[in-house]
């Protein structure tokens, strides 16, 4: 049965047209108690199960199993740490199992490009550090950057260090960018504007109605340039921003430009990058006869750990204050922080400066050799989240093998856990409960190189700005691998000149 114990009771009662008060009277409880049993907030007395099953015509054996299962789940999930662990493991399982049997006809990775030697004419707005430029590079496709631009001078510095572009082809401010000169000269236009609300005067807004927003300038450039294809990317929240009104305007305006519009929320963990990053993508195609569906998810074959550097500078390690923030159960339960995760939390521009996001714990072993630079970053894990650790007095008692004629096993760090008991939060018993030990170690934030890797940029990406700017630029970028999937699915070469 997929329903909870309480839900089964409620549905059976309703099917028999029994009121809550009538059912409560039969099993000998008050209406409030029965209501709580049905919604799962109160346990059911097993002694009353026979009369319950007889009254509602339920299978006694099946209901006994449901009741036991319900109680086990409630006991386990009283512990926030267990809830967090289960959520994490379910996400990992889903990540590894999603579409393991991808139909070869639907696998975008196997698609052959029709004109692999052609040159793609590219224009970008809000260009950032060039995610689509890197995507085309990784696909080994010839391309020419017709124009690009960004208001951030640090972004321009990174862009010019990594891509070939004439100074005349760069614009600093999209609101003053005159794009009419590029009409018919662009095959692919890519960009994404910040999410802004529109003034909803009428039922349907057109391009002129959204003037004054950065989306207006994106749509204006599409209208002026008339690219064969455009890709518009934005945060997932755009779809429900201002009660969904903003998203409706975006769709209406882009459709009015004469393009066939396709939209979908894509997660980078479904396209080869272990990062939980959901974004809305809009693909507009000038030729309405061309069919397009978004690329199917593929199995994730790597974890975040595969993207880490072998050696890191001491400046990336946290000191005591940062460690206590990052390791606190409150922040981990709210998914503000994650340590040694398989799938990265969504990168944000400022995460490395407010101790949010992903962190790496490195335990020290007897073989670890450190320079003096690292001494101040070594911490004792036992001093973090003290409530989960045993005091010296309790530890000595719990790990004693017994007294007189009583002896028991006191092993810690078991491969297979002993059964978890409801009393484990308040009683410590040798040989009954589970205990783990920790060594000293260090916690560090991800390096800029690692953040760039987890956005799909290779180590050949030239870093010419400060770490502060690199973190911001990585966090603001589009994931390269998602763009690769879209470009392959589109067969972008068939739109080339």
Question: In what range is the share of β-strand residues?
Answer: 5-15%
Compute the number of strand runs: 11
Largest sheet: 7 strands, mixed
Strand order of the largest sheet: 3-2-1-4-5-7-6
Coarse morphology: globular
Label the CATH architecture of the largest domain. 3-Layer(aba) Sandwich
Distance between the termini: 58 Å
Structural class: alpha/beta
- For the record, the CATH class of the largest domain is Alpha Beta
Give, in order, the helices and strands.
Answer: HHHHHHEHEHEEHEHEEHHEEEHEHHH
CATH-defined superfamily of the largest domain: Vaccinia Virus protein VP39
How many structural domains?
A: 3
The number of distinct helices, counting runs of at least 4 residues, comes to 16
Radius of gyration computed on alpha carbons? 29 Å
- What is the helical fraction, as a range of percent? 25-40%
Report on this structure:
It holds the Pfam family DNA_methylase. By secondary structure, the protein is of the alpha/beta class. The chain has three domains: 5-77, Orthogonal Bundle (434 Repressor (Amino-terminal Domain)); 104-301 and 463-495, 3-Layer(aba) Sandwich (Rossmann fold); 304-451, no CATH class. It contains 16 helices and eleven strands. Strand 2, helix 8 and strand 3 (170-171) form a beta-alpha-beta unit. Helix 1 packs across helix 3 (31-39) and helix 2 (20-27) packs across helix 3. The radius of gyration is 29 Å and the shape is globular. The termini are far apart.
Compact summary:
Helices cover 32% and strands 12% of the residues. The chain is of the alpha/beta class and 497 residues long. The chain is globular.
